[in-house]
Amino acid sequence: xxxxxGTTTPKTAPGILKKFRPAINAVLVPLLAVFTALxxxxxxxxxxxxxxxAAYRGLFEGAFGSAxxxxxxxxxxxxxxxxxxAVALAFKGGLFNIGAEGQLAFGAVAAAWVxxxxxxxxxxxxxxxxxxxxxxxxxxxxxxxWGAIPxxxxxxxxxxxxxxxxxxxxxxxxxxxxxxxxxxxxxxPLNVVARTPQIAESARIPPIIAGFRLHWGFVLAxxxxxxxxxxxxxxxxxxxxxxxxANPDAGRYAGxxxxxxxxxxxxxxGVLAGLAGSLEVTxxxxxxxxxxxxxxxxxxxxxxxxxxxxxxxxxxxSLLWGAxxxxxxxxxxxxxxxxxxxxxxxxxxLLFVAxxxxxxxxxxxxATEERLVLTRGWGG
Amino acid sequence: MDWRRxxxxxxxxxxxxxxxxxxxxxxxxxxxxxxxxxxxxxxxxTPLTLGALSGIYCERAGVVNIGIEGMMLSSAFFGWFGAIxxxxxxxxxxxxxxxxxxxxxxxxxxxxxxxxxxLSVTYKVDQIIGGTVINILAIGISGFLNRQLFFEKGSIFGxxxxxxxxxxxxxxxxxxxxxxxxxIFEQQPIAIAAILLVxxxxxxxxxxxxxxxxxxxGEHPRAADTVGINVARMRYTNxxxxxxxxGLGGAxxxxxxxxxxxxxxxxxxxxxxxAAMIFGNWSPFGAWASALxxxxxxxxxxxxxxxxxxxxxQWAFLQQAYIVGLVPYLLTMLILTGIIGKTxxxxxxxxxxxx
Lengths: 380, 355
Hints:
Chain A is mostly helical. Chain A is built from 15 helices and no strands.
């Protein structure tokens, strides 16, 4: 059978569309996932007797309605960006880091200790130019160690990082509870809360604009997103991490030290999460208080997946997350819908991002990308 | 269950009980301590045993389930909510309310299992991500509804204080008389059910056609498909059964352990259950034995509190809940290193089946 005469197949327009379809879908599918989750969230609000439109208006106002609101949204987004990058980096290395929570908490504890105790221990006054990097660096180191341990266990014994990082979360929680109720407790009179003393002035990262809480840590987080992108794309280490993640056997054949790549991935992942924790202390709260970080670990997973594990995607997803968390209190104030409804909406976003087949089916979008594979049995 | 691992398990349990006897033996007779430790061990091992059994049903059929934690958390909430709703609004007496609560918990778990099956079998989502979705969803829903239904203005109880129906009563097994054994096994019904389910699951998995088929789709789905077994249906059913068992485990928290719900109250027990399943080599008895180790570690924490005055000053910091509380988590990590014996998961565990 020959081609019927007169039918010329149009080449240009669909050709271009085809070329960019993966890129378009990579943005479109998460957007539709967010949209679908918001629609379902509205349904939930309706069912419990609230007014969804008023609730969402409050949410939007609280997140973007004023300069102050915008500043708060970035404050919320900062730890999300870093913890999200931590999880995304681990994903690139084929590892599932559920331990961002614990790494973040340990980073915060270490930064707080350097912040309030180190000058006394050394018997010197530290200038801010030394004290801030020391405090932040200590947090990164502590988070890195906390991340590297499950990485090392995985490389050495095959113990699955999913369970080990979760166990490390609970261990970190227990140890920080012990420290903040005991050796590191704020002994000032009237304090009954499990928290450290305030860090010295010299360890505090200043806000960018006086009167707003938006701080240089947010800029640092954006820079880190760039660095993560550069390391993954442009360096040998990044190549090794990606190869070990995509196909460990091929990596081994190509001369990649897969065990080293696993430990490095988890170390860097922990460093990022630890940085998130130390910024919360040095730029925001000026101390570590028990219970401030509950939930960052799981949020970071959702953010990494929503951002398609791309650093730029993680930044955008974090801003969305920060906006929702920040706007939620205004929503609750205006409509009496508890802030916890945000958790439900965020879980739904994750559901639709993870099962993007549902979104594709709902909106008739063709599949173009390969799926993320993490589950390779339990090792053991 | 090989001898090496059984030896390790027995050793750890004996050490944990021995510590309590050493500390408190001067005041209380060792027999009483041992009986109390064993009884507590069995009781607190209940959610771990049920969680591990839930994992066995799913993973023997080839679906990794790290959503057990979320299944238990959501079931703990809805079980408690069901019981309290019947008790307060409808004015039913505590016992029927509690039974209704248990049923609600099991159904919640089954629904969560259905969700995991849809994600992992139908949509072939990476199963660890699927499980994570369930965990996050459970935290969101239980936290939100807990606040909305009980604490907000205009909650369904209309300002009146809801009446918790209490917890399920202990059952005295008639055929054991008054021996120390009888006191060990004088447990609440979900704890007893967990032990019975261990026996039942062993029988189902290894002595029935259903069990053979379940194991077949978990080991070699292609071969199972070739001989006419519906792989997708087997996986769906097993994951839903697994969810229901996790749901019963969730009921333990709010209807058997304490008569209240708190956000995040499962506290990692679902993940420890997974470690118990792995260390038990995906077999019901092995998983139960491993769950008892974790139970004993927790029993140590509980029972040590009675003897806090006996502990020498320099060791006093160890009896703080935060430090003793580390034992189960450290044990889990130690076990996963495999130094106490390697385990073998089902071959097709975690792999979606493409027809």
